[in-house]
């Protein structure tokens, strides 16, 4: 009826349809009235509004005054007991809460989980917790609505709109691939964020210097006597202290302060210490096993001490050469070459092994996710897709000082009104410290999808380790569920095969990340942290091709190639909806000035990566 000249009102206000309206509602009521799981009656979904809905509301209230009746199109009218909006923003629900309305608000749909999504969920829930009248919402959707098919080679993939020939002449492409779980009920990455944000027991730092953490029972009715609490403190990847708190007999809504004895910890230089508190089930229950992790949180203890800096002059001597085309640095067992025209580090060789296949590039693009496509990001930010190719070198300066080669390259891209300053420090052990500053002067230029570096390497570097958030992918606006720790695995398994290929595999708050071929490798150390990802294929394979019918399980294949993205940041994945909503401002790189620094540290299999990450120079 939405396409009728009178839209839904053609029948919602027509008395000839009133009996149908009431009969439909009455059959629903009689079918489910004795089901204790039914807590509200809904009069329908996206069907317009009118007098017939008002009459149906009154009939349901006459039959059952104990349950609320809800209807989204009723908005603020009186024939809905709960204001039930769809995809309202945080600003809109906050405005409602501050207007002192006398009815609760529940989002009947929100956090559209299409593709790589469900960003800023924590911001919604901090808002829900702030106002009593805001009582949560229902994420759309629970499960990807796609169908398993096989290609001509017998490889199974998830088919979506457009994969069924002439069976359906109209379709919504992959729009129904919007679930927290896949069609086979395996988990999509973003469901981990939902579990963390939704956890019913909350931990909050109180005074970490004194080892104090507050725990709050966010259940509405039950106490915490059915849960056991434990804690541990890790220094880097090693547990240095742990204990059990036993049972906390905390009633619903109550808060208690826990105190942990930190006096036994003697901080080591360069080691970061994190306290993790956990709540697990004490007993086995239907669907939930004993010792199931229900809630947790992690806190960095304020006891970090910087490692001692080395004097570069104590390392093997290096030589610096400069000609018209290149600036070249040579040391014992390594060479580093900077190409003047490209303004980039073009060769990096350690003991005869070429670390990079191509010159390192400053990178500004991310493969659009489904939310990006819905809000027009590819067209809006296209100026950044090829920006790294447009930068032209303005100046190259170099000097050898304190046995350190210092190279400064300034480049510009007039089209994006951007100036890039890259400064490199090459030390006698082959380590390179990189500092990059981008300044976008024109405030009318679009947001920047990402700012960082791309290293293209041989596919033999197929193993990765990192100390940062993990083990699953995380993003600027979706990282609450990823604990900081030491993780490792294959490069290939860091990518998730979304129904339609798109950005995947990012890690946030990385202190160091290392790729290896089993014998040799390269570490990137953040100064202090960076975001990044590794891909066993050219990152461009994930990019959106208009009019294509691509699939994560078919079109993203392991290749003899590694793309390593080392970023200041990329913008958040978004998630308010997938048809126009942009990434929130607080997770967006608008025109301005951004800076980040890393160190590239070559290693072999004799090195201890944790110890290597403590390397620091004066």
Question: Overview of this structure, please?
Answer:
The protein is mainly beta. It is 13% helix and 35% strand. It has eleven helices and 30 strands. Strands 19, 20, 21, 22, 23, 24, 25, 26, 27, 28, 29 and 30 form a twelve-stranded antiparallel sheet that branches. Strand 27 and strand 28 form a beta hairpin. Helix 2 packs parallel to helix 3. The termini are far apart. The model has no long low-confidence stretch (mean pLDDT 96).
What secondary-structure arrangement, pairings included, does this model have?
Blueprint: H1 9-12, H2 18-32, E1 41-42, H3 51-63, E2 69-70, H4 90-98, E3 105-110, H5 121-130, E4 134-139, E5 147-150, E6 156-159, H6 191-198, E7 201-207, E8 212-217, E9 227-235, E10 238-247, E11 255-259, E12 273-281, E13 293-300, E14 319-322, E15 326-331, E16 334-339, E17 344-350, E18 353-354, E19 361-363, H7 370-374, H8 377-380, H9 387-390, E20 392-401, E21 404-413, E22 418-426, E23 432-440, E24 450-458, E25 463-470, E26 483-490, E27 507-516, E28 520-535, H10 552-555, E29 561-570, E30 593-604, H11 609-612
Parallel strand pairs: 1-2, 3-4
Antiparallel strand pairs: 5-6, 7-8, 8-11, 9-10, 9-12, 12-13, 14-15, 15-16, 16-17, 17-18, 19-24, 20-21, 21-22, 22-23, 23-30, 24-29, 25-26, 25-27, 27-28, 28-29, 28-30
Helix pairs in contact: 2-3
Category from helices, strands and their pairing: mainly beta
Multimerization status: single chain
Total beta-strand segments: 30
Query: Which term fits the overall shape?
Result: globular
Q: Approximately how much helix is present in the residues?
A: 10-25%
C-alpha end-to-end distance: 72 Å
Helix segment count? 11
Describe the largest sheet: 12 strands, antiparallel
Low-confidence segments, ≥5 residues, pLDDT <50? none
Percent of residues in beta strands: 35-45%
Radius of gyration: 28 Å
Average the pLDDT over all residues and give the rounded result: 96
